[in-house]
Amino acid sequence: MICLYCHSPLSQHVDIFSLFQKSSIICHTCEKKLSPLSDSPTCKRCANKTEEAVDLCESCLFLSQSFKHLPNQIITVFDYNKEVQQLFHRYKFVNDAAMSEVIAHFINVDFKKYDLVIPIPISNKRLEERTYNQVSLVLDQLNVNYSDILKTNKVKRQSELTKAERLREKQIFFMHEGDKERVYGANILLVDDIYTTGITVHQAIQELYAHNCKNIDLLTFSRS
Q: Where are the domains of the chain?
């Protein structure tokens, strides 16, 4: 077997105990490079790096003033270090779909406690270009039952917009009429890949709360 990330051979110790353990998909070196959140000071809410630990960073304060509804908690998997940036570049822009399994390897979330797990959608045009939704593919690797009830017609990448441009945009998410009743009273986990300004996911949160969900937690693979 080879490491899915660096393609070097995997050295595995074989004994009676290893027969009952899940095989590793990445080597120890890559495991260390891609290891989840560091001990650096961060915002306790969104994992944004700060000079000292704070309950709410400037970004979270801004979002709390700009949006009526906020996620109950934000779960972040990776630090956005250089290796993680390379991981997501390969995954999103080089179409290296195998990186979905690498990302899934680091996620430890109790998905069963949620009524609905909802990935942030991408437009049909973007889906045709990439051939997969980068969030849904990771959830597939985890065998998570998720609901594609959020839709978007947005074509331009959010990463191409400034913070001000994102705020000026009208609601970019919607749901079909038949799906709205599924949200009512639901405990929801919203899943996104990279949390940057937070504006996109908070627009999605407003749409879900507009149809009277009970609670929304946010899982994001990394905080840039």
A: 1-33, 38-223
